[in-house]
Amino acid sequence: MELITHRVPPGVDDAAYVKAAYLSALATGEETPTLISRERSIELLGTMQGGYNVSTLVDLLSDDDDAVASLAASQLKKTLLVFDAFYDVEALHNSGENAHATSVLESWADAEWYTSRPEVPSKMTVTVFKVSGETNTDDLSPAQDAWSRPDVPLHALAMLKNSRDGINPDKDGEIGPLAQMEDLKGLGHPLAYVGDVVGTGSSRKSATNSVLWFMGDDLPYVPNMRGGGMHRQ
Fold it and tell me: 200 near 137, Cβ under 8 Å?
């Protein structure tokens, strides 16, 4: 359950396809539930963000079991990457016979996917991870380590791998200041990346992933990625 819930990525890669196909079979009754109930399979489909999960959730809006249709609607309300499936939901709404499709459209229009998120706190206490001077993207996501960018935990090891003022890599030229960051985390607060200029250069997504791997928060249902975090420049 841990593996299929949290260790298979959402989206549209091959693993997500297999996950969505199995969960869809459970949700539609093609497979007999064992560890995963029909209801739980629908909830897990709702965590997959968009892609292979969408068509099943749209089909379930018309399920004979009203509780199942309502559960599918609640998952679609949190799913934005629906692409052309939007028109399928719209058609169900326009028929005037599917209140669940109508509720999904109303939720999207009201941006409940956004307004339901936790508010940003008015005050946050952090420990500063100071990097003097300019930080370009190659400092955070070195080009010579580009081969490992799809593997965020591995690629992040190369962040700030070269010595500089105030930065002490674990292995100069190979592994960044992991011990230094762990010592700062030991103070009990989240780390905030603080530099004079941060983010010039290309491959910024990989650079951000590296910083967040050490300074962000785990993302449920998304393996090897973290979100949140903060920086100041």
Answer: yes
User: Which domain covers residue 133, as residue numbers?
Assistant: 127-232
Do 77 and 107 lie in one domain? The reply is: yes
Q: Are residues 12 and 82 in the same domain?
A: yes
Can you state the percent helix, strand and coil of the chain, rounding each to 5? 45, 15, 40
Beta bridge partners of 130: 194
Q: What is the b/e burial string over 64-95, where b = at least 16 CB atoms within 10 angstroms of the residue's CB?
A: eeeebbebbbbbbbebeebeebeebbeebbee
Q: Is 51 left (phi over 0), alpha (psi -120 to 50) or beta?
A: left
- The pLDDT tens digits for 126-178 are 999 999 999 999 999 999 999 999 999 999 999 999 999 999 999 999 999 99
Name the pTM for this structure. 0.88
40 and 91 share one domain: yes
- Supply 82's token pair: 């629906």
Least confident of 12-16, 116-120, 140-144, 223-227: 116-120
Domain tally, the chain: 2
Same domain, 154 and 66: no
For residues 231 and 216, the answer to whether their CB atoms sit within 8 Å is: no
CATH number at residue 69: 1.25.40.310
DSSP 97: -
